[in-house]
Amino acid sequence: MSYGDDLTARLLGALATVGFDTNPEVELIVQGVASPSRLATEWAGFRVTAAGGSCYAKVLHADMAPLIDFQRAAQASECAGRTGAAPRLLGADKTGGVLIFEDLGTSWRAARLDDLLAPGLLDALWALKRCVHAGPAPDYACSPMADIERLRVRCRQDGVVLPAEHQWIDRCVDMVWLALQQRQVRVAPVHGDGVVSNVMVSSEGELRLVDFDYGGCMDPWYDVAITLNELYSFENQWREGIRAWAGECLEVDYAVCRLYALINDWYWTLWGFWSGTTSARQLEFSKVGQWTLLRCRQCVQDPRLEGWMRQVQEGKA
Q1: Which domain holds residue 79?
Q2: Where is the Aminoglycoside phosphotransferase domain (predicted)?
């Protein structure tokens, strides 16, 4: 059985399990693109059409199963779907690694960077993130640091060749995470991934959030930070984004965002190098790691890094 046939067989088995019409028409509608968008790199996306209607289904790639907690991804997706900020989850089949959602329709597509840089779109995106933060909460906390540790172990086990300075960056990331843990925060459900391809845009310019693999409950500023990190290259843009979120840009909030962005970038650096080493799929995983590594280097070399950590620990505005 070919790889594609295996994905389809798992999907058809899941559809039967949740009671979908027999003999549906299935179409692979999202081709994987690792760099720069991480589009469909962890799941294959299908549109399913039958007499009873249509749905959208995601099938987990087998090589990503060590990193994705299926049950948590399903629960976070279900909670987000209940807010209206994301498509509703219709069913989940853990055995096949399949999540089934309402179909947004053919007028929707994955966003590109230029879509989200259009005037007014950041406010719309922030509104969706706030809906998730205020919505039903999964019964677990998510931890980017736990995700990093899982990848550290995988990289060691699988003999992944990491950048020469990885031990130094690892130490910086550990110190940054420790500083962030000193904050008093009110945890909330989060999206957990800021990449632009995890936002859907319609032909009318509406937005929805998708892919809650890294969702759960934690500091909502994490969502702000990793979104800014994907959208903007310049400090003044970050500060404007923080003002749009919070009404003002306190120095401590800017520091928090920079530190969370480093944590997230290091995760995707390790992910890119690990996936590029272990996956048989012909995607440019390593390019993702090289790009986020560049951002990690810029952050750990920034002379303000220690000051940001002190600000966060002391809670100074």
Answers
A1: 3-107
A2: 85-259
